[in-house]
Write a structure and sequence with these properties.
Elements (H helix, E strand, L loop, with lengths): L7 H4 L2 E3 H15 L3 E5 L15 H5 L4 E3 L4 H13 L3 E8 H4 L3 H8 L2 H4 L9 E6 L14 H4 L6 E3 L4 H6 L1 H6 L4 E6 L6 E3 L13 E4 L4 E5 L4 H13 L4 E5 L2 E3 L3 H11 L2 E8 L4 H13 L8 E5 L8 H7 L3 H12 L1
Parallel strand pairs: 2-3, 2-4, 4-5, 5-7, 6-7, 10-11, 10-13, 13-14
Antiparallel strand pairs: 1-8, 6-12, 9-11
Helix pairs in contact: 4-6, 11-15, 12-13
Length: 335
Amino acid sequence: MTAGGTRTGDRGGATTYREAMRDALREALTADERVFLMGEDVGRYGGCFGVSLGLIEEFGPDRVRDTPLSESAFVGAGIGAALAGMRPIVEIMTVNFSLLALDQILNNAATLRHMSGGRVGVPLVIRMTTGAGRQLAAQHSHSLEGWYAHIPGIRVLAPATPQDARLLLAPALADPDPVLIFEHGTLYNAEGPLDPAAPQVDPDRAAVPRAGTDVTLIAYGGCLPKALAAAEELAGDGISAEVVDLRSLRPLDDATVVGSVRRTHRAVVVDEGWRSGSLSAEVSARITEQAFFDLDAPVERVCSAEVPIPYARQLEEAALPQVPGIVAAARRVVG
């Protein structure tokens, strides 16, 4: 529903990432009485990023629940509700603050099925904003989703388009185990096509929004628009770049990534996380393990500078992966 009261799913066409996620939440709350949303300011305030605006008026305070400012407490409450048969959606304001609930996520949500011999599942969805580019300084701007992709027992999703923001919530709620959804803060105002009749997406499969023959650009979340822009610039130089949107960070879709690299013989991995120990390192390692003899050049990585994300705009922009850096990396591997 837009500010004027129109449901984006009803009008179709282009919509914002924020509106698409709101439609997904509304659809889930309508379809299953066990579903409820909880987190800081998700109710009367409408969510710190406006995603849940208007939902408390539609579904009431029992289904859209404001919580105290204690991530460990309300994530723990979500785990308990999931164990009791509910289908909670927990919103954490930013990924930086999720570290206050890391014990609950890692030591409880991700492990209970394994520690119970498969008898206890935690069907919990945790949504959080990630990423920089909004001048919110270091404590609100890091990209730590790669840390969570390291943890067995959870699924990690990073929708990069309004369509995926709308369609990935339903399979996340259907998963019998915990699912973390990372929403890049720069995407909330981004517009894209939304087909309300589109079939459900497979959360385990990466997407290929642009085909190419000379180099594969691998990205996810907030870096996908930059990879697509880089591919467009490269096309002007006669370089055909294929773009792979990982979409799922755990599990990784090796088949799509490696299949693309085997066709193009070159790869550039774009990751807003820091280079050391990053998700880009894992993707690069898998490409090298599975397609080494298909490569015509070493895998390139374009990552954030290894500093806390600065506040000043020019420094923040310099610290993050940008289109010129992606283009330069692609040109290096093409030679």
